Amino acid sequence: MKYFVIVGLVLILASLGSALFFMLRGSKGDTRKSSNMVKALTLRIGLSVLVFVCILVAWKLGYIQPTGIPAGG
Question: What is the mean pLDDT of residues 59-71?
């Protein structure tokens, strides 16, 4: 499960990078550029939600345990 979350976070960063690439590339008013950027950002949002749901499921199934922050640390 830990590796799945790590891969998900790497994919989120890659999607964000591709959205930045599409934003900076091309000429002003290019609709294809905007369409590609929207797709990349939509993919990033979907991956973020998926990673969050996986963390919640892992917590519910007992794969991960909350430890909290120690007081006075």
Answer: 83
Domain ranges of the chain: 14-61
Residue with tokens 């890659």: 14
Decide which of 18 and 73 is more confident: 18
Q: Which two tokens stand for residue 57?
A: 């499921």
Q: How many helices (H) and strands (E) does the chain have?
A: 2, 0
Q: Which amino acid is at 34?
A: S
Q: Return the structure tokens found at 32.
A: 């294809």
Distances 49 to 19, 27, 46, 63 between C-alpha atoms, Å: 18, 32, 5, 19
Cβ–Cβ < 8 Å for 53, 4: no
pTM of the model: 0.68
pLDDT reported for residue 60: 92
